[in-house]
Design goal:
With 479 residues, this protein is α+β, with helices and mostly antiparallel strands. The protein is 32% helix and 17% strand. It is elongated, with a radius of gyration of 27 Å.
Length: 479
């Protein structure tokens, strides 16, 4: 295994060669401008969001008002184009087109799907009778089922534990439109092939499935389950994104499906604090963050009373406590080396309150098993990651990022170019060294997916996640 260079940031931070190399490697060159691009300093006393004050719009004078009435602006209003209606879900088939559909179904095992799911027998019977309303119905239905499974995944929602990604492909690759395209071109298999995920791991798993003997049932099922997991996501993950595979305990910074850098992670403990699977957007980077301590600790563990009763201890540990008129105590840990969020966090708004952040307990990254947190994802070399994203997202220049990190002050850098962030769960995938590997099923999420492969295909299934949203008051202290 190739050793990764560990970049440490003791005390004052210099712009490291690691950050410079990462930035130079990508296609996003800096424009060299020194103007401000969304940095929001301050807020360290409250921990709340910083606000940019915008000047009030100037009031028009009487003269300008009269001019506007005489010569109204001729700015064209934006044209809102209606989305064309989806093509019908039942269309006319020739016998030749149906024969090509039958061939596609018979070969669908290469995609990890089962030909028996698509009414192959009744379709052949209808085809033998020549063109008919029955053939149109049967062929259109089988094609639609293939589209649904190749585009959205075969696994029903109730078998996707703690899965909260809404796949956009259903809206952009509509079944009726694909059916019309396939019949117009006559290329049934080619139209279906366009639905395959573009991430290289899908093709790699497909090749591994082809190379695995039929009698190795367990391995083939595991490959099929993980191929299907790729179909749960958007077909194309975008040009730049963060992706972490929870059971691997690794985070990748990726540009055009090429890994720029990897970071070890600490993820949620099994059980209620397990890290969910998400597809969110990183909108900003917070350097030197504050931590608002959950009430389960402030009240439940007596931290609030201790902070108020022992000012010297509170100051030494970076805590500021306030008591409201109704007696509620709020405790905010100020920026510093001992802050429970470490030196950075990535702003990634979501209903689960899950995000990527640093930790002062960096010794935990040396452990092989790192399911230790209360749900959020802690990353090693977090300051390097934060600076790289701020620069590539054009929220700061290299020098500005170094100065912000060194300041010790809460500063939020808003990104001009946001980053997609995927928290995934694959038990067979390429590891950070490029080798296809299996990973421990730390949360037991394989079993329901594997079981679903042995059951008949679920028809008319929901595309909306159905699992319970668990918002955890994250105890960020040493695990």
């Amino acid at each position: 295994m190739k050793a990764k260079r560990m970049v440490r940031f003791p005390g004052k931070l210099a712009c490291t060669s690691a950050v410079a190399a990462l930035v130079a490697t990508t296609a996003f060159a800096q424009d060299g401008a020194g103007v401000r691009r969304g940095m929001i300093p301050g807020g360290e006393q409250t921990g709340g969001p910083a606000v940019v004050q915008m000047p009030a719009p100037a009031q028009p004078s009487k003269a300008s008002d009269a001019f506007n009435k005489a010569f109204p602006p001729s700015v064209a209003q934006p044209v809102v184009q209606a989305i064309p209606a989806e093509a019908p879900l039942v269309q006319a088939w020739t016998v030749g087109q149906a024969a090509r559909l039958v061939a596609a179904i018979e070969g669908i095992g290469a995609e990890g799907l089962d030909p028996r799911d698509y009414d192959l027998g009744p379709l052949k019977v209808a085809m033998a009778s020549g063109p008919s309303a029955e053939l149109n119905q049967m062929a259109s239905q089988s094609f639609a089922w293939l589209v649904e499974d190749l585009r959205d995944g075969r696994t029903p929602m109730d078998a996707r534990q703690q899965w909260f990604v809404v796949d956009p492909d259903r809206e952009t690759l509509r079944t009726g439109d694909l059916l019309a395209e396939a019949l117009r071109s006559g290329d049934i298999a080619g139209t279906l092939a366009k639905l395959a995920p573009t991430h290289p791991d899908y093709a790699r798993l497909k090749a591994e499935l082809a190379a695995t003997p039929a009698n190795n049932v367990a391995k083939r099922k595991l490959i099929r389950a993980n191929m299907d997991r790729w179909r749960w996501l958007a077909r194309d993950l975008g040009s730049q994104y963060l992706i972490t595979n929870v059971p691997e305990f690794q985070l990748r910074l990726t540009v055009r499906n090429r890994i720029i850098s990897t970071y070890r992670t600490i993820v949620g403990k099994p059980g209620r604090t397990a890290t969910p699977q998400l597809a969110e957007t990183v909108e900003g980077v917070v350097f030197n963050p504050t931590w608002t301590v959950p009430q389960s600790i402030v009240k439940g563990e007596g931290l609030g009373a201790k902070v108020l009763a022992n000012p010297a201890w509170a100051k030494a540990n970076g805590y500021v406590g306030t008591k409201s008129a109704n007696g509620t105590i709020t405790v905010v840990q100020q920026p510093g080396k001992g802050n429970s969020l470490g030196l950075m966090k990535l702003e990634m708004p979501n209903e689960h309150a899950i995000f990527f952040h640093d930790t002062p307990s960096r010794h935990l990254f040396a452990s092989d098993e790192r399911a230790l947190s209360h749900g959020c994802v802690r990353t090693e070399r977090a300051l390097e990651l934060a600076m790289t994203m701020a620069i590539l997202g054009r929220g700061a220049t290299k020098d500005e990022a170094v100065a912000i990190a060194n300041s010790g002050k809460y500063t939020k850098v808003q990104l001009q170019k946001t980053w997609a962030a995927y928290i995934t769960y694959f038990t067979m995938a390429s590891d950070i060294n490029g080798e296809l590997a299996t990973f421990a099923d730390i949360y037991g999420r394989d079993a329901p997916v594997l079981a679903s492969l042995d059951k008949p295909r679920v028809r008319n299934r929901s595309a909306v996640p159905t699992d319970e949203v668990i918002v955890i008051e994250d105890d960020l202290r040493d695990s």
